Amino acid sequence: MNDAPDDTRPDDAVSEEARPDDAGSEEARSDDAGSEEARLEDTARGETPPMEVRPDGPAAFRLGFVPGVNPAKWVRTWRARLTVPLELVPLPTDDAGAAVRAGDVEAALVRRPVATHDGHERVLHAIPLYDEVPVVVVSKEHLLSLADDVALDDLVAETVWHPLDDRFDWDALASGDEPTAVTGAPPGVPGYTRPGHAKEAVEIVASGVGVVVLPMSLARLHHRRDVVAVPLTDGPTSGVSLAWPAYDGDPLCEELVGIVRGRSVHSSRGAAAQDQAADQAAQGSSGRDGGRTTGATALTRTGEARRKKNAAARAQADRTAAQQRKRGDQSRARGKGKKRGR
């Protein structure tokens, strides 16, 4: 699949003496921003911190992601727009689609190709987000480490490790077709075994035995001082997609799709549309309950602000009506007193 932020609050009315030092405030905000960036980077490495779920709010939306994918920018946009907590769930590369189908997560950032059909039935929606450059990871002592780039022909005589979580469609590369499944094997001499995952393959390469072909982001994730990643000019394509259940009409999935695709916060789809529909239904019920039915907690911060504004307007209208009734009662009381005085 293609193309998440901070609440701002007005300063309290305080005297100049009571205001904190500006430099100290800037430093505190800088520390907060730095810690948030560090936390998101830890998440991208699979070190997911516990999420804080508001006791009075909706359950968290679980977004899975595979190693090497950094969802930080989309997470920031989500938190800026939505009131629903976002929980990041690390997933194994070779089982990410299955986690979505099983309901372990509501959506996932997965590596292509991803199986979207079970027979003739579509079980997942998936939209491509971006493609990645394939690289060959070699030991620093290897001759290929001196090259600016390499081709597949350069690997024919090399021992090429093939991790079990490899997502390249090698058969499609050989035939010139679009990658649709994880098939085939890389060129070169196969290793005596298949490493369980990319990290294990890089560790073997670092010992000076063989090479491994990986997407650029995985090579960066598992980078070591004793290995070098060299671009592979004619290698298989790899990319990242957003996948979510085909049968699910969850507006939060639509909202996430809008975020990764770069839709405006005012888009007519997803959670914003649900909030607007709930608000319109509440306005339609004004004849029965005075228009005070707002339904469930607003999903978007825009919807939440709109409901607070509407609630404040209703409270002001109630106060105005109460004052008018009080003045009317006082006026009638004065009129009765004048009549008795006559």
Can you put this structure into words, describing what you see?
- Helix 7 (251-260) crosses helix 8 (271-284).
- The longest helix is centred in the last third of the chain and has 41 residues, at 301-341.
- With 342 residues, the protein is an alpha/beta fold.
- It is 38% helix and 17% strand.
- The protein has ten helices and twelve strands.
- It starts with 21 loop residues before the first helix and ends with a helix.
- The strands form three sheets. A five-stranded mixed sheet has the order 2-1-3-12-6.
- The radius of gyration is 29 Å and the shape is elongated.
- Helix 4 links the parallel strand 8 and strand 9.
- It has helices at 22-44, 72-81, 96-101, 170-175, 198-206, 216-221, 251-260, 271-284, 286-289, 301-341; strands spanning 61-65, 86-90, 107-111, 117-118, 121-122, 124-132, 134-139, 159-161, 189-190, 211-215, 227-231, 238-245.
First-last Cα distance: 86 Å
The class by helix and strand makeup works out as alpha/beta
Query: Largest sheet at a glance?
Result: 5 strands, mixed
In what order do the strands lie side by side in the largest sheet?
A: 2-1-3-12-6
Helix proportion of residues, in percent? Answer: 25-40%
User: Please, what is the average pLDDT?
Assistant: 77
Based on CA atoms alone, the radius of gyration comes out at 29 Å
Tell me the fraction of residues in β-strands, as a range. Answer: 15-25%
Uncertain runs with pLDDT below 50, 5 residues or more? Answer: 1-30, 48-57, 286-295
**Tertiary shape:** elongated
Written as H for each helix and E for each strand, in order along the chain, the element string is: HEHEHEEEEEEHEHEHEEHHHH
Please, how many helices?
A: 10
The beta-strand count equals 12
